[in-house]
Amino acid sequence: MSNTTAPRHAGPPSSPGSTRPVSADMGPLGRLGVWVTDHAKLVTVVWLLTIAGLGAFAPQVEHNLSGAGWQAEGSESVEARELAREHFGGNASSAIQVVVRSTDGPVTEGEGKDVLAEVTAVLEAEPRIAEVVAPTPGATLSQDGDTAIVLAGAGADTNEMVRVATDLKAELQELSTDAVEVNPTGSSLLWSDFNEANLDAMLKSELMSWPVTLAILVLAFGALVAAGLPLLLTLAGLVASAGSLVLINELVPVSIWAMNFAMMFALALGIDYALFVVVRYRAARAARAGSGRTDIAGKQRAIAQTMDTAGKAVLLSGLTVLISLSAVMLVPSPSFRSMAGGIMLSVLFVLAATLTLLPLVLFKLDDRINKLALPWSKSGEHRSPRFAAWGERLWKRPLVWGLASLVVLLALAAPIAGLTTAMPSIKVLPEDASARVGYDQVQESFGDGAPGTLQLVMNDADAAAATEVLKNDDGIAAAMPPMPAADDSGLVMVQAVPTVDPSDPQLGETVDRLRADLPASALVGGAPVENLDLKTQLDESTPLVIGVVLVLGFLLLLVALQAPLISLLGTLASLLSTAAAFGVARLVFQEGYGADLLGFESQGFLDAWAPVFFFAMIFAIAMDYTVFLLASAKEHYERTGDPKEAMVGSLAHSGRVIFAAGAVMVAVFFTFALSGPIPPKEMGVVLGVAVLLDAFLVRLVLLPVLLRLTGNAAWYTPAWLKRILPNITFAHD
Questions:
Q1: Considering the chain, what is the average pLDDT of its residues?
Q2: What is the rounded average pLDDT of the residues 588-601?
């Protein structure tokens, strides 16, 4: 954007007797706002049909969406799993293991024998289970005879096997008696139990966050009616995205986490966008009411002004969020792609509701949005005196405030240097979860590495050589005799029990050794190996995703602001809050500080998927605030050409919105740190700390200081760049 002041629109607004169209001199979004008000019935019908049509599928979301997909597509372990499922009676990593333990003599006799028969009958009656394998001495029957494992082969893909686990686990556990305990376990049960614990945590967190969220909204809006508008956007976005995910799941598997994250983002962004738009509309209506323009055309002018300013910022913010999350699609893992897709879908619906449904509601309610106002509410106040004073303070002493915020951020970011990551261990489950109880019993009866048995699939001719390699490897405790395929494929499977727990880092070294020493046809798989391959893929994808997110974020800011320097600084500033959030995460989850307070058992690492996925989420939220602040600054600079007015005015007009929206997000995210398994806690702490630091230190201190220090240079645009970029302005008369 050049340093010249944008031309102001001329001419009075239209009135009932005027020939001047209301949409004259408006931008595209302003004209959209007017069109929405002129076609209120059509817009209302379209939204009602959308919500009703997709809402009919929404109740199925919990049951239909899958829980697996945490795998590295194209990896050796996934290939081994598919061969095992196809050629070895479903004896793959997704098979269900039912642990039957007797406290009254051998499990294969007396009451234990009867329970084993009942377990087998339940499994054989399930059509999605392939071959049911009875306990085998020396392999799945413990030496003391007290513990046995009944193997239920996977007769469907991994996503469906998680549903099978969900459908059968209660029935299987009910077969327990006073002397015999039944606990299904295995990879499919782990995901089933985890999804169940995660869903409970999400619901508890939502219940805890709603009262706080509503209180903050009422304080921010100053009126109960206005505070309810974000709920309208959230409801519309949630219902539509939930129904859409169910339909998409008919085509490609969608993780249940997609809905969990979609729910959070629909709430967070719905509040952000509604705050920004409603505050601007109230100010526009108050100004026009003061001039006597209270007719329909006056309301339309207010809608147009709101959409051409706040609406434009919301659109650019939404595009930034979508672009940031789209980079996660570069990770070739179904779970990550479906989670990113679910969030993007909710953002699209919330964005559509903000740009069409919200203007219509504002137009219809008009001054009634101020109903049930708090005594101190100033509904027409757009420029906050307190944040204006804060801007003046920053302008006078930029180095003091800038350096102070920078020191805090760098100090919190310092621990990131020692951050280690790994795939989640069994500790992510509650201690009474079936999968964890069965896991512990298998480990106790068969050895530390028994829950993470490796599955090697190879050509028959290489079986002897492979067996010799396993026999001589110090990381292997025992290896079963080669098992021929059930068909004439010429394949054999060798199962090997490692010496260490599946989450022990030494297992990775063992797998690397085996892959180097085994015959070329041998594929090394098993549930723990799938985790290792996924971690490797995540480690390789993370730098690419971060780079793409930063580049795309910068380019979008550049297009929106037309100013290379402040676009670059705004993008890089987001890295500070992200690094600080992960520094705190290392102290909490890797080192265990605060573990007792938050109620979890430290795994000694951060889950491997956190850096890539949380970075994209944090950056999306951070750029959301960046767009709001810098769009307001650009608007003031276009009007005045004064860098001081750009900095102080942006804080005065958007600081209160950023503060309120940040407070809501922090409240929502931190509630996730108080309940449920470790991954939601990680999400709550990382995102909560990131938003806290980004909204209150980066966007309300550091970024305004950068505007102060760079002055006119922040808004300078080279002539050659002006010719390339589209002409986007934010000033509106």
A1: 86
A2: 88
Look at 146-150, 196-200, 541-545, 636-640 and tell me which has the smallest mean pLDDT: 196-200
Q: How far is CA 670 from the centre of its chain?
A: 14
What residues are paired with 149 via a beta bridge?
A: 99
**Which helix (H) or strand (E) segment is 204 a member of?**
helix 187-221
**Mean pLDDT, range 405-430, rounded to an integer:** 91
Question: Which residues make beta-bridge pairs with 141?
Answer: 137, 148
Q: For residues 674 and 581, which has the higher predicted lDDT (pLDDT)?
A: 581
Give the angle 717-722-728 at the CA atoms, nearest 5°.
Answer: 95
Q: Where does residue 528 rank: exposed (0-12), middle (13-18), buried (19+ CB within 10 A)?
A: buried
Encoded tokens for 527: 């549930």
| Residue that has been written with the tokens 């100013």 in this structure | 563
pLDDT of residue 377: 57
CB atoms within 10 A of CB 294: 15
Q: SS3 of 503, please? A: coil
Summarised one tens digit per residue, pLDDT across range 651-665 is: 998 888 888 888 888
Residue 3 has pLDDT above 50, yes or no: no
Closest to 561 in 3D by CA, of 623, 651, 621: 623
Span between the terminal Cα atoms of the chain, in Å = 18
What is the C-alpha separation between 714 and 324, in angstroms, rounded? 24
Distance, in Å, from the CA atom of 525 to the CA atom of 529, rounded to the nearest integer, reads 5
Question: What pLDDT does residue 66 have?
Answer: 66
Distance CA 494, CA 481 (A): 6
163 or 295, which is more confident: 163
Taking the C-alpha atoms of residue 655 and residue 458, their distance in angstroms, rounded to an integer, is 63
In angstroms, how far is CA 417 from the centroid of its own chain? 24
Q: Are 22 and 14 in contact (CB under 8 A)?
A: yes
Residue 134 token pair:
């009875």
Which has the closest alpha carbon to 494: 524, 473, 529, 532? 524
